[in-house]
């Protein structure tokens, strides 16, 4: 009978293996060195060993496993996961699970919490965006009223899949999250909002930018939403295109992360965002 155990991994070597074998991150396609540096973030890197041989690895910390991966030529994903659980019987959460492992984990009494994917597109100053008559585009920065931003976000996401999965946050949570994003992106702020000149109100907003510690120096869209009564006027499309154009001065790529099942994914594809692999976060029942 095979014997399984965990073995502490040396971070730099573990990072190489994780980037090559995890298959869960579109960002690694662009800049090897930067992606590798971003991966060396944890002292909780472990090999999964079988009879003294490495068959895979994972980041394991406080009952959570992140981005587990198999090491070729080992290919039995069920045996790998069974080995992982035999070494760690206190695993509650597993993050960064590829779609092909979801069905296996369901048999181990784990349930899907959310399925997400990163999407990327080129930053391009040649992209043009034209708003409908009566609307104007403005820079959104830390002087923007956070209560107004929170109300637009809450109403804009209302009835969507994120609220369905995670519940509706209260206004204070949204204000804090909005302020946090604006602070992160202050290094290279790309945030904008659309204003209805007739009704004298904010119709939609996009919080975006480049943080100092952003992997690969990508521009990132953290939030984008439009009030329900302004949908189907191409306001979100206009904001996405404007961010793509404005980002080109500072970055080559714009990224965002979308919950699978969000109807906005179709818009992102239309604008030119390329989806990466879908990955799931799962929890023990």
TrEMBL record:
The record ties this protein, via Pfam families, to:
Acetyltransf_7
Give one GO molecular function term: acyltransferase activity, transferring groups other than amino-acyl groups
Q: Where is the N-acetyltransferase domain?
A: 152-285
Query: What SUPFAM superfamilies has UniProt attached to this entry?
Result: Acyl-CoA N-acyltransferases (Nat)
**What is the protein name stated in its UniProt record?**
N-acetyltransferase domain-containing protein
Question: Source taxonomy lineage?
Answer: Bacteria, Bacillati, Bacillota, Bacilli, Bacillales
